[in-house]
Design goal:
Length: about 425
């Protein structure tokens, strides 16, 4: 939706008077990605475990076929706009040429110890038009460090804080722009100076500088309503979940929905049957992106360093199904005010609507109903509360002459970026 400069200024002034939480331009851009990808790969990939038990020496890790172009191509064809790599999981193994620890790729036979997955990924993401993100675990089993980066005593804490800060500096300063930074389990010490220097616009997951939050589950859905606002408290901010959403909060803290294409984060020899079906992935999509969040779908390279062919095929099929259902709306509309109508050129059978607010001006809608004109009368199709970036509503197929969105409660004047009408069923 394009707003003329004068009108934009008027709406902005109204928004300020409402005291609604507003997203930054980077958060708006992040929302618009809708679908992103994780890649989990660590020594536990060889151990058939979800967590590194430290039983393998780096000398035993040699992913001979590792090809970050394959990773990037896979997630791109799967519809993702960003690849977030787990550069260090909780075990502490580092996939880049770090100076901070011997438990790293430099002591692996892969590429004679000269390999650097982050360097490869920087090139691959550029090649495939993807943004690059990084997961750096504050927990580190190799160094005896617990969740959040917490050590057992002050001396160990001081030593590890120095190590972690150097690792973060390496990752943020050597590989171009890092779009998103993951501090899984939050962070007990300050790295704000490093973020400010090397990644001032980054999306940050957990920790004191968080500007997105964990949804609160790993099953691929935002509990509804998934309000984007939250009340700031420096003691709890980095650990808030969707349960803490508050439309009257004072900061914008949207939900990221991290979920798995298999039933584990890491590849193992037993989880191939757990590969999710397209229908299951679509249910996750409709309850994550369709509830205003960003869906972060994990991929799991095997010990060769490649994402399995079955998974590559499935994620591509998933993207194709998103496009089939939601790529070509029957009709769209937009507007300001309490009522927006979308009218096709002739009566059509429909079974879904997608509603988007213009979140530049905050999350204004509090309650709404969707109706269809059926045989000359308005009939209820769906109703809800939160819309935010996007709300997808599905209903039984019905032939309508037009579709009407009515905002029954709002904070200020509603601004609807798009009302789109679909027929998703075959």
């Amino acid at each position: 939706m394009t707003i003329a400069p004068v009108l934009f200024a008027m709406v902005s002034a109204q928004t300020a008077s409402l005291k609604l939480p507003l997203p930054t331009p980077r958060q708006v851009e992040w929302h618009d990605m809708e679908l992103t990808s994780f890649v989990h790969f660590a020594p536990n990939t060889w151990q058939d475990k979800e967590y590194d038990d430290l039983s393998l020496s780096p000398s035993q890790l040699n992913p001979t076929l590792l090809n970050t172009d394959q990773w990037a191509k896979t997630v791109k064809e799967g519809g993702s706009k960003m690849l977030i790599f787990v550069a260090k999981h909780v075990g502490g193994f580092c996939w880049w040429q770090t100076k901070t620890t011997e438990y790293s790729v430099k002591n692996s036979p892969w590429r004679a110890g000269k390999g650097d997955v982050m360097a490869d990924l920087q090139k691959s993401c550029k090649k495939y038009g993807l943004k690059l993100g990084v997961y750096l675990s504050p927990a580190d089993s190799k160094h005896g460090i617990e969740v959040g980066g917490r050590a057992k005593d002050p001396a160990q804490q001081e030593a590890y804080t120095k190590i972690f800060r150097e690792q973060l500096t390496e990752l943020l300063s050597k590989y171009g722009e890092i779009y998103e930074v993951w501090f899984d389990g939050s962070l007990i010490f300050d790295v704000s100076d490093i973020l400010a220097k090397y990644a001032p616009n980054a999306i940050v997951f957990q920790g004191p500088q968080a500007n997105i939050r964990w949804v609160g589950n790993e099953e691929g859905f935002v509990p509804y309503p998934g309000w984007n606002g939250a009340k700031y408290d420096p003691k709890t901010w980095g650990t808030l979940t969707s349960a803490d959403g508050d439309p009257n909060g004072d900061r914008w803290l949207p939900n990221e929905v991290d979920c798995r294409i298999r039933d584990t984060w890491f590849w193992n020899t037993k989880n191939a049957p757990a590969l999710k079906s397209v229908d299951t992935l679509m249910r996750m999509y409709e309850r994550s992106v369709g509830h205003g969040g960003v869906m972060l779908l994990n991929q799991t390279p095997d010990p060769t360093g490649l994402i399995p062919a079955t998974d590559v095929k499935r994620v591509k099929e998933f993207a194709q199904e998103i496009e089939r259902r939601y790529g070509a709306p029957i009709v769209t509309s937009q507007g300001k005010g309490k009522v927006v109508i979308a009218q096709p050129s002739s009566p059509m059978v429909v079974d879904a609507v997608s509603i988007m607010e213009d979140i530049h001006f905050g999350e204004r809608v509090r309650k709404y109903i969707v109706e269809g004109m059926v045989d000359g009368k308005w009939e209820m199709l769906a109703e809800g509360t939160a819309i935010g970036h996007k709300k997808i509503d599905k209903f039984d197929p019905v032939r309508v002459a037009s579709v009407r969105l009515t905002i029954t409660e709002a904070a200020g004047e509603p601004i609807i970026r798009q009302l789109a009408v679909f027929r998703t069923q075959h």
